[in-house]
Amino acid sequence: MTDQLLHPLPVSTLVLGACGGAGATTTTLGLANTAAARGGAVVAVDATPAGGDVAERGADAALSVSGLEQLVAAGPVADDVFDGYCSRTSAGTRILNRLGDQTASNGEFHTLTGLLRARGVSAVHDLGHRLRAAYLAPLLATPSPIVLVVPCRADAFNRLRSALQSIGDTLGEPGLARTVVTVSNQDATGWQVDVDLLREYLGGQVWGVETIPYDEHLGMGIVIDHSRLASDTRAAYERVSAAASAVAEGRPERV
User: Fold this and answer.
1) Which of 102, 138, 179, 238 is deepest in the core (most CB within 10 A)?
2) Can you give the pTM of this predicted structure?
3) Residue 244: predicted pLDDT
């Protein structure tokens, strides 16, 4: 492992799917668990408008009956109370899931950002596949790295253009410059699209392009256990994590 891979995740990382079913949730968990397995304090946050399944997909150690909505309504809380609102993975990631009883608001994320900063933890936010929602304003106000996940399919690559357009329209060229396009292979038969052509096409538009290989454990649709991922998959999450850190620190793309 290089020194670069030992760099912690930024305080905030935003994971966005180029389309539904892109793998944003599994990538959120992969990045958070990678950091937690290295001893980092990290929370995976459900930042979808009405609640996603990040806890159901990733909480292999403990699933909390409480949610993000209840935590932010409680205001400042002690560390043990904060932990009680969180689900957990066996790798050590805490998960704040939405219960979905109310739509996300920017006030919630202002409060949550303060709670996380007070604890000195990194947050990996699962945005789903929508970027322009008003409640995301507190997250988009800081120059956080964006991990844009796209499935390794020709139709998804075609839809990638609209996702990049959304980032550009919302955040301008600086937003695109801090975007790491991450191709997630969900096909056991191999890579169906030439990723090198995508790198050539996107050269100079985004920070870089990373890949995550097909993983049988992820493909089973069961609760994810980070220790059961293939070594190539864990190495891929290390690379994406390193890329997010490089973006946050203003370092150029690796050659």
Assistant:
1) 179
2) 0.94
3) 95
